[in-house]
């Protein structure tokens, strides 16, 4: 199912709405920042990226114990970059896929399907950062 705001406003508005709602419904501060020139994307990108950000934000709420989470979308004419960063407890990135969770694995396979890249870094006691990049031709 595609959220109504995504169809109407595109990724920038939908992610902004989503982050506002997560901010209001959790003790964690969730901020959305947009940098660049907004343009609508192919629907498969809009849906895929929305789902990816949903999972990463939900993970931060469920697992990180952070008090701050920042979601950034940087849109350039031929490049799209998304950054999700929390200041929580961190986790062992090399153990992804070994537990029973499927969220991060599905994030990775969505990104592969869209020909993007993801870089995950995390430090115990400091937080986690997910950087996602797509080259748009
Ligand atoms: N932002 C984060 N901070 C701390 N730990 C995290 C964070 N994101 C993920 N993790 C850790 O990575 C594990 C794997 O995440 P993943 O999304 O794959 O599974 P899950 O959230 O446990 O379950 P599911 O997504 O299938 O409901 C989590 O169980 C958690 O231990
Ligand atoms: Mg998850």
Report on this structure.
It is a single chain. The protein is of the alpha+beta class. The protein has a single domain, classed as 2-Layer Sandwich (Heat Shock Protein 90). Helix content is 40%, strand content 30%. The chain has 3 helices and 5 strands. It has a 5-stranded mixed beta sheet with strand order 1-2-3-5-4, covered by helices on one side. The mean pLDDT is 95.
| SSE sequence, one letter per element | HEHEEHEE
What is the overall silhouette? globular
Identify low-pLDDT runs. none
CATH architecture heading? 2-Layer Sandwich
Q: In terms of quaternary structure, what is this?
A: single chain
Return the structural class: alpha+beta
Map the helices and strands.
Blueprint: H1 4-25, E1 29-36, H2 43-64, E2 68-76, E3 79-86, H3 103-113, E4 117-123, E5 127-135
Parallel strand pairs: 1-2
Antiparallel strand pairs: 2-3, 3-5, 4-5
The structure holds adenosine-5'-triphosphate and magnesium ion.
Magnesium ion binds at residues 55, 59, 101, 103.
Descriptive labels:
137 residues, five-stranded mixed sheet, alpha+beta, 3 helices, binds magnesium ion, Heat Shock Protein 90, binds adenosine-5'-triphosphate, 30% strand
Quick recap:
This protein is of the alpha+beta class and 137 residues long. The chain is built from 3 helices and 5 strands, in the order αβαββαββ. The protein has one domain (4-135): 2-Layer Sandwich (Heat Shock Protein 90), CATH 3.30.565.10.
């Amino acid at each position: 199912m595609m959220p109504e705001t995504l169809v109407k406003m595109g990724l920038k508005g939908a992610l902004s709405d989503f982050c506002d709602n997560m901010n209001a419904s959790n003790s964690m501060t969730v901020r959305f920042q947009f940098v660049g020139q907004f343009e609508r994307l192919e629907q498969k990108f809009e849906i895929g990226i929305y789902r990816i950000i949903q999972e990463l934000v939900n993970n931060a709420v469920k697992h990180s114990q952070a008090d701050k989470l920042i979601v950034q979308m940087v849109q350039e004419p031929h490049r799209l970059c998304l950054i999700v960063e929390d200041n929580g407890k961190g986790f062992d990135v090399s153990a992804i896929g070994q537990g029973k969770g499927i969220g991060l694995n599905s994030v990775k396979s969505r990104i592969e399907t869209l020909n993007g890249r993801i870089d995950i870094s995390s430090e115990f006691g400091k937080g986690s950062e997910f950087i996602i990049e797509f080259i748009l031709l």
